[in-house]
Amino acid sequence: MTGLAAAGNLDLVRDLGADEALDYRTTGPADLGEFDVVLDSAGTDLRAYRRLLAPGGRMVAITVGSPADAAYLLASTAFGSRRIRFFAGNPTNALFAELTGYVESGAIRPVVDTVHELGDIAEAHRALERGGVRGKHVIRLANA
Q: Distance between CA atoms of 106 and 55, rounded to whole angstroms?
């Protein structure tokens, strides 16, 4: 698995399981090889990263950068051997229970950047908008 991240996050990406961690500021699509799967969590250049897919490969886009990207994504779901798929998070109680089991067993480890109290939710949004997040921002709903 290859991960692209800011230089300051490369150790974290390796710690999360990437075989290779590369700085996205100095590594572009032209510097990379072919992949069976591309997971785009940042809304990058869909066309450039789609070209990296092996025939029959799939790309999952969690976010898109513009309406033109959204249209391109829609068209790619039907045309070509290298398809992009939407990510839709519709978890069920059973899926949350399964995920909880993985976390409790140590099979996966969530990365939490900051825990905010519910009254500080506006600050949580500002922090996300500033960028540089290393994990999730969690909102505590009640004192635990």
A: 34
Take residue 104 and report the two structure tokens written for it.
Answer: 């409790």
pLDDT digits (tens, 9 = 90+) for 33-42: 999 999 888 7
pTM score of the predicted model: 0.69
Domain locations in the chain as residue ranges? 2-86, 93-140
In order, the DSSP letters of 37-70 are EEEESS---HHHHHTTEEEEEEEEES--SSHHHH
Residue type, 73: L
How far apart are the C-alpha atoms of 117 and 59, rounded to whole Å? 35
CATH topology of domain 2-86: Rossmann fold (3.40.50)
Residue 54 to residue 140: CA distance in whole angstroms: 42
Is the alpha carbon torsion for 111, 44, 77, 19 positive or negative?
negative
